[in-house]
Amino acid sequence: MLLKNQIHIDKILSLGINGEGIVKKDGFVIFIPFCLLNEEVEYKILKVTKKVAYGKLLRVITPSKDRVNPKCEVFTKCGGCQLQHLNYDSQLNLKSATVKDSLKKIGFIDVDVPTTHKSSFEYAYRNKLQLPIAEVDGQTKLGFFATNSHRIIPIKSCPIHPDWSSKIIEVFYNFIQQYNLKGYNEDKGTGLLRHLVVRSVNERLIITLVLTKNAFPYKKELIELLKENFNEFTLYFNINPKKTNAILGEEFVLIYGNGYYEYEVLEIKAKIDAKSFMQVNDFVYPKLYEKALSLIGDDKDVTVIDAYSGAGFMTSLFAKKYQKAIGIEIIKEAVDCADALAKENGLQNKMENICANVEEVLPKIVDNLKKENKKIVLTVDPPRKGLDRFSIKTIKNADIEKIVYISCNPASLARDLGLLMGTLIDENGEIKKAVDVKENYKITYIQPFDMFPQTKHVETLVCLEKI
After folding, report:
1. Looking at 35, 72, 158, 408, which residue is catalytic?
2. For residues 228 and 167, what is the distance between their CA atoms, to the nearest angstrom?
3. Are 235 and 257 in contact (CB under 8 A)?
4. Residue 286 — pLDDT band, cuts 50, 70, 90?
5. Cβ-proximal residues to 350 (8 Å cutoff; 6+ apart), any chain
6. How many Cβ atoms are within 10 Å of 132's Cβ, its own excluded?
7. How far apart are the first and last CA of the chain?
8. Residue 339 has pLDDT above 90, yes or no
C-alpha cells in the first residue's frame, strides 16, 4: 500500500506532459518532478489519491546522459522553469513528444510531429519581467512565486531573462530597503508595493510599479536612481487596490518618460506602452507568425477571421496581406490596442476589431461573409482552455475550407482537433471517442515552436483543411 511520507527507489518509466518523471507502483501512477527518463531515483511520497500519487525527488542515483546542471540557483523552488535539468535538444524532442502523445491519447489522432522549432537563445530570451512584491515575516521580499502557491522565492537574477533584469532587481531591492517600503500582505490587504513589471522594447525599458494606492512618497528619488542605472526608460505607477490575483489594476499613471516606445516587426509598426501585449520571445514569435501567413496562402482575395485576436498584431499582419481581416477579442483594452495598431499602420479600411465573445459573434460573421460569397480563412489562438464547444459547432457548420490554429496547450488542442476532425464526438456535453469516424478536416501542417525554453510550455501551429 502506497502511503504519504514513504520513501522509495524506482526507475523513471516515462515523462508526463509537464516534464515530470512517471513511476508505476502498487497500482498507482506516481508523478515526480525534475526526473528524467530511465533514471533511478530516490523520492518521497507527498500526496496519494485513489489511483495517482505525487512525489518529491530526494536524489538521483543513476543520472540520465541528458541531465545537465541548471543555471538558476532557485531551480526546483521557483515555479517558473521545469526543464533546466534537461539538455536543450532533449527539451525540443520532449515537447514534440508531448504534442504527439496528447493528440493520440486525447484526440485519437495519430500524426507525425516534427522536432520543435528551437529558440535562438536557450536562456536570456524573455523581454518581460514580472515580479511579485510581498511582506514575508515582517520583511519586504521581491522574487517569484513557488510552484502552485503565493509563497515568494526571493531572487537576485533569473537566467531566462537578459542581463538588464538582474540590474532592475538589484536597484529596486536596494531602494525598498533604503526607504523601508512595505510589500503587499495578501491576508491583511496591507502594504504599498504589489508587483514590479518591466518590458524591454529594443533594450529600452518600460517599468511599471504596481501600488495599492496612488500615494508613493519617493517619486523623485526613484527617478534619479533609475537615471543613474539605465540609459533609456519610462516609468508608470499602476494602482490596484483590490483583493485580487490580478496583477494590474485599471489606473495607470505616467511618472517619467514618453510613456511608449515605437517598435516594428514584420513591417507592422506599433507603439508599445505599459498596457500593450507582446509575445515574450522576440526570436521565435515572428517565425511562427510568418509561417501562419504562409499557411493561409498567396490568394490575396480572402477575408481572414482572427478569433481570440488579443491586441491585434496577427490581425494587422493579415489585413496588410489580404483583402480584409476581422479580429474578435473579449478584452476591451486589447481591442483598443488593436484599433490603435490599425490606425498606426493605415489599415482602418481593411482591419475590423470586434469586442465580443467569439462564440456569440462568429456565427453571424461567417454567415454574412458567406452571403457575400467571400473566401474565408479562420485563424484561432485561444487561451489554455481551448475553443468553446459552441464555437467548434459553429466552425463545423460553417464549412470553412481552411483553419489555422495556434495553441499554447497540447491537451486542449488535441480535444479541439478531435472534435473538428471527427475522431471525437460531443454527446450531450460529454466528449467521447467516435465509433464511426466521419472525417471533416485533415491536418496538412503541424509544427511546435519553443517560445519558452527551460519550461514545460510549447506553442503549436496547425493547419486544417476541409476534406
Report:
1. 408
2. 11
3. yes
4. very high
5. 319, 320, 322, 323, 324, 325
6. 21
7. 51
8. yes
Euclidean distance between CA atoms 339 and 316, whole angstroms: 10
Rounded distance, CA 17 to CA 105, Å? 12
Q: How many residues does the chain have?
A: 467
Helix axes 410-421, 88-105, angle to 10 degrees: 40
For 182, which DSSP code? P
In this predicted structure, what is the pLDDT of residue 442? Answer: 95
Q: Which of 46, 64, 34 is nearest to 8 (CA)?
A: 46
Using alpha carbons, list the distances in angstroms from residue 316 to 47, 57, 247, 313, 365.
48, 47, 27, 5, 18
C-alpha cell at 431: 466528449
The cell numbers describing 199, all together, are: 518590458
- pLDDT of amino acid 354: 97
C-alpha cell, 7 = 520513501
254: nearest Cα among 279, 224, 223, 227 = 223
Q: What is the pLDDT of residue 248?
A: 94
Asked if 408 is an active-site residue, the reply is yes
Q: pLDDT confidence of 119, banded at 50, 70, 90?
A: very high
Asked if the model's pLDDT at residue 388 lies above 90, the reply is no
Closest CA to 144 of 97, 207, 67, 76: 76
Pairing of strands 21-25, 28-32: antiparallel
Measured distance CA(316)–CA(312) in Å, rounded:
6
Q: Which has the closest alpha carbon to 142: 199, 210, 190, 87? A: 210
Pair type for strands 40-48 and 459-466: unpaired
pTM recorded for the entire structure: 0.93
Task: Give CA–CA dist 45/246, Å, rounded.
Answer: 33
